[in-house]
Design a protein that fits this description.
With 114 residues, the protein is mainly α. It contains 7 helices and no strands.
Amino acid sequence: MARPSIPSPLDRRHLLEQDLDARRASQIAEAYLAEGRKNEALDFLVKAGDPEALKRLVGDAVDDGDAFLLQSVYRALGEEPDRATWARCADAAEAKGKHRYATTARRNAARGED
């Protein structure tokens, strides 16, 4: 079976507006993830209704130090990251030179819940 390709930006918008079955949405998300395009994959993981894949994406966001992705994934899950998660994200962001993400994550850790 051929690997699904990433849709064009216009096709992506149309796909997000359609009712996609979970399998097709997951396939599209996997195509984006294979290209390292996690933020774009997020919308299709939500359409697929795949909380396990979303939780894996939390781990990727923390490891990448991507505070924006972390917040977006948790919003999709209907949850809030705890302080420890924000702190790990901040440390990873700092180590990767993503100072703005590190600042955002530390600010959220300071006001977050345990």
